[in-house]
Amino acid sequence: MKTRHPKGLIVLFFTEMWERFSFYGMRAILVLYLTKETLGANPGMGWTDTRALALYGWYTMLVYVMAIPGGIIADRLLGQKKTVFIGGVLIAIGQLTLVMDSTVAFYTGLALIISGVGCLKPNISTMVGGLYEIGDPRRDSGFTIFYIGINVGAASAPLLVGYIGEVHGWHYGFGLAGIGMLLGLIVYAWGQKYLKTVGNYKPAKKIHGTNKHVPLTKIEKDRIFVLLVSFLIVIIFWAAYEQAGGLMNLYTKEKINRIVFGWEIPTSLFQAVPAIFVIIFGTVVAGYWAGRQRKGKEASSLFKMAVGIIVMGTGFLMMSGAALQAATGVKAMLIWLILSYLLQVIGELSLSPVALSFITKLAPVKYASIMMGIYFAATGLGNKVAGLVGELATHAGALQVFTGIFIFCLAFGLLLLVFFKKLKTLTHGAEDIQEI
Ligand code: PHE
Q1: Whose alpha carbon is nearest atom 6 of ligand 1?
Q2: Do the domain assignments include residue 432?
Q3: Domain count, the chain
Q4: Is the distance from the beta carbon of residue 150 to the nearest atom of ligand 1 less than 6 Å?
């Protein structure tokens, strides 16, 4: 059995790490920049919170929705490898455009970043899948490693870009995010020699001179049905999980006791906690599932995803605990929040890298990138729903919303556990392991 991973994985790991550094760095300061008053030191745009959050919501949704055209470009025109490069260039130009202090530059920069992420993010993920043959048991762990790279970028960016942006000037922060992307491009260009066999354009068969796509077989249709169910799972997962940046963030600021050894930890630092947990527990969770698989116990992707939703949902039960304590008039203990993030991340690690890998196993090759694009668009939709759910808390109360999320995730996860065997038959053995 091969245990070492292809060298190309390292190249994709660092390229995506820098792209996420740029993305999460920019995200960390976007709302702060928009809402900062226009006069005084390090001036911002002077927007109201509502207006800034609305733009933020659209931005986070659009970056992932643009993965659909990004996927189509890769499938129909350029292949994933070139599309990723173009995406990186667009992001870097976009971030560097934001260095300029003007409204036109601001919107142009955002539009470039949105298009760039749409070209890069889904296609680099498909390329990770392309490094492995069908049935290669290293694929899932390859995605876990890749996912750790994502989170190294996500954990360090808010700290570095956030600090530079807030203390030295927003536009320097945007510039730093741009430099991160440039470093990613350098790694990618250097590593091309390890990516010779992946991400190349495969033209559709020509029939009567036109580019007609071959009709799908019954197996492919069944698999696409399972993919659609996975998209639903993903929407629900991220709609709950993405409370972290919104409702959980505000709740931490107002209701959680953040004083440790006499020092009050700034709220924004907690945003790095989930990413740090991913880095710490990424291989532990993957190892746990691999161990189960070796023992011949159930460890299919659908099963992991169902368990992932339930475990993540349980994280919200911890927040209900915090809300019950806060209702007594004291600030809630920090441990509730930390346990909540821990459970959310364990759930994330059972679902998110697994889902990425699953898509690359199920999608017919000719639609590989577009399917990944739709998967990311589903994430974008989940992000948007998360915002709406978070808003509910202002009317319904945080306790109700946290408990509601827990109950919903538990019920949905259990439903999946009831049906996953049926769904598994529809994958027609896409996951059957062939030891190589
Ligand atoms: N942390 C993940 C990332 O940035 C969140 C995510 C998962 C985003 C899946 C999109 C799709 O990659």
Answers
A1: 379
A2: no
A3: 1
A4: yes
Residue 292 forms part of a structural domain: yes
Cβ of 29 below 6 Å from ligand 1: no
Radius of gyration over every alpha carbon of the chain, rounded to an integer in angstroms: 22
Q: How much is the pLDDT for 137? A: 80
How far is residue 39 CA from its own chain's centroid?
Answer: 35
Atom of ligand 1 nearest to the CA of 278: 1
CATH number for position 248? 1.20.1250.20
Distance CA 356, CA 371 (A): 10
Q: How far apart (Å, rounded) are the C-alpha atoms in residues 66 and 71?
A: 9
What are the C-alpha distances in Å from 118 to residues 84, 339, 355?
A: 9, 33, 18
Global pTM reads 0.86
For residue 204, is it within any domain? no
- Residue closest via CA to ligand 1's atom 8 equals 379
Residue 185 lies in a domain: yes
Any atom of ligand 1 within 6 Å of the Cβ of 376: yes
- Token pair, residue 114, equals 């949105």
120 ligand 1 Cβ < 6 A: no
pLDDT in tens, 291-348: 998 899 988 899 999 999 999 999 999 999 999 999 999 999 999 999 999 999 999 9
Q: Which helix (H) or strand (E) holds 210?
A: strand 210-211
Domain extent at residue 222:
10-193+218-425
